[in-house]
Structures are given as C-alpha cells and as structure tokens.
User: Fold this.
Amino acid sequence: MNTTQIVPTILTNNPEEYKKLIAMYQPFAKRIQVDIADGTFAPDLTIPVNNVWWPEGWEVDVHMMVVRPSEHLPIILQLKPSLCIFHAETGEDLLPMFDQLKANGIKAGVALMKPTFPGDYKEFIAAADHVLVFAGDIGKQGSKADMLQTEKVPLIKAINPNAEIGWDGGANLQTTRAIVHAGFDVINVGSALSTAQDPSAMFEALNAEIDKRGVVL
Assistant:
C-alpha cells in the first residue's frame, strides 16, 4: 500500500470562499495546504496569513509565496501550523527561520520553482523537513503539470534522503499515478478537488489512483 498523501489546497483572496472550502474539505481531509501570496512573488494577492484558521485537529501546511519570509515569520509562529514552506528563490537566508520554526514545533519546508536546480540550494534542502516541488503556475490553480519536475526527486533525495517531498501543480486523475511513481510523499491538489461535482468522491478516486500499478494509459 502506497503511503503518499493527497492533500487539498486552498488558494483564495476571499474570506467567505476560504470558509466555504474549509467546510467542503472538513468531512474527509485531515491535512490541507493553505497557499498565501503577497501579490509580488506570486502575481495574485490572497487572503493575508493573519486571516488563516482551521478546525481543531487538522494538520495544516502553510505555503508562503512571499518575497520576504522574515516579515511573515512572527505570525507563522503564532499560528503554529504543522509545516511552513518558504520559497528558496526569495533571496533571504532561510536557515535562521528554519531554526525558529523547529524550535517552536513547526516543521520547516522549502519550495523550488520550475526553473530551480536543487543543487543550487543544498543548504536549504539539507535543513528542511519538507521539499515542495512546484510544477504549475505560481499563485494559480488549474494549471498544467510540468511532468519534467519529477526528475528533481532523486536530486533532492541525494541531498536529504529523510525529507518529505511534495508536489504542487496540475495534479488530477490523469497525472497522479505518474507523480506517485516518481517518488513523491505528498500530492497537493487544488482545482481537481475544489471544482469537482463531488469533492469527497474525487478525493477517494485520487487516493485509489495512488495505489495503482503499471503504465498510465
């Protein structure tokens, strides 16, 4: 049985839609990813991180698509998500922030954009609990998956064999099996769930897909 997790993602600039998506996923999801964008690193602005909340008992990953992670760190420490992911490409030194996250019981994650070569950020990857491979269009859901990003898995494992590796971008029923077979531990799913006629049934279908073997036809 495959241990890969399907994780619903929330990306919105509307507090009411955020509430609606939380309610949609609550019956079946135990782990979610909340995407936060500052309108600069990613072109579209989302709800601010200080408006983020979740039901008690949920495991929450906060994916920070922001230019200056250090400015957002204090509120992250107050929120206490399970995992906080910052982008390697911001230009800030993430290592001191990773230390602060871990000291407060929060796992530290680093995200890699499509053009980014893992070897350019060895220190961040080596110190991270989670490495997110970004394979879609930053700040948007429903983009096409860049399947060449699966080639980053062995490069990441060579730097940090213990890191959890996540995929973000274009995951759906057609791509999930190939993503799993590439060695990902987490598959973040956005529009394939949020726009599904029956999100719970789609969640089950995606989970069934990760356990299939053989060639994707």
